[in-house]
Amino acid sequence: MNSPFARLSWSFLFLFTLACGEEVPAAREGMSLVPRSPAYYQDQGQQLQGRVLQSAAPVGTASAEPPIYHRYSGWWNNGWLPSARIEKGELKVSGPKGTLAGASLAGSWIPADDAGQAVWTVVRSVSQDPSSADGSTWLYSIDLYDSSSKTYSPLCAADANGVAAAIPIAATFDSGGNRVESTTQFSFACTRGVMAKCYRWGYRPWLTDAAGSSLTFSNLHWACTRLARADYCGDGRTWTQNGTRINVWDTAPAPGPFQLHGPSDPTFVFEAGWNTKGAVCLSKQRWATLNPQIAQNCPGKLVAPGASTSAGTVCDTPEQAALFDSSTRLFNESKANVAP
Q1: Which of 101, 117, 115, 129 is nearest to 51 (CA)?
Q2: Kind plus residue range of the DSSP H or E element containing 151
Q3: In 3-state terms, the chain is what percent helix, strand and coil (to 5)?
Q4: Per-residue pLDDT tens for 22-78?
Q5: Residue 137 in 3-state DSSP?
Q6: Co-location of 64 and 147 in the same domain
Q7: Is residue 205 situated within a structural domain?
Q8: 20 in the same domain as 64
């Protein structure tokens, strides 16, 4: 088995001889229509939530995006509302006067925690997600209210289609990229961020298996957020550039698989197998950076060949990834990208 670090030198040669200066291809029409409509090649990114914030984070650092957590209780819409809940991909509030859902939640004020500060957000509009074939998912246009200036600003940055809206996720994600179950808080996943991208690729955390458990699918969504951000170490640091094209596929149980391996493309090479803790094993980095020894940046997680074992945590196929973790169900390929 070849060393992934030795393979990086091949990656440089490969890119310069075949694809030097190549632009990231434009997103394919309908590429996010899932499940059962695999688009094979997806555009990933650095941000979890996809908020209107900073420029791109330097490779090998945590996202500069502070998480914002919304509360199920304390809502206001012409009066205080009972606690909300999330059913699949939709927010609902049930009370003595019936159930508020869909567009009827427009105008609702929702308390949130933004980097430790109590803030208010406002639901401006609600519409069904056009990428949700079964109608189970809704998009929420959210404004963040600044009490000091009494002004409003969009919570979400616009995605590649110009949409600045969010999908509700019944969990929170901390700055380390860890999914945190909560009965009091939830996340608005902006469609620009990887939480929503993974959801739209088919990895919907509320799906259930034959036994009625959603654990497999919530973990698959979580693992996808690691994959999409190239969070190899599973500590929240991103090792990729925004808009990088990747080939994602899975071996999820029914109702999966959700993404199938795309047509053979010799410019894409197996990269890694993934679980909720990051890369299970690695064939190559998504981006060849100035410090290609990725294992040195993930102590106790990734092992370079010849360091403490003969082969290290190296895999070149899904079957080899399964030898490190038999529950691994998510894989990807990427090009040999050279950092600008």
Answers
A1: 115
A2: strand 151-154
A3: 15, 30, 55
A4: 222 222 222 222 233 334 445 545 566 665 543 455 555 555 567 899 999 999 999
A5: strand
A6: yes
A7: no
A8: no
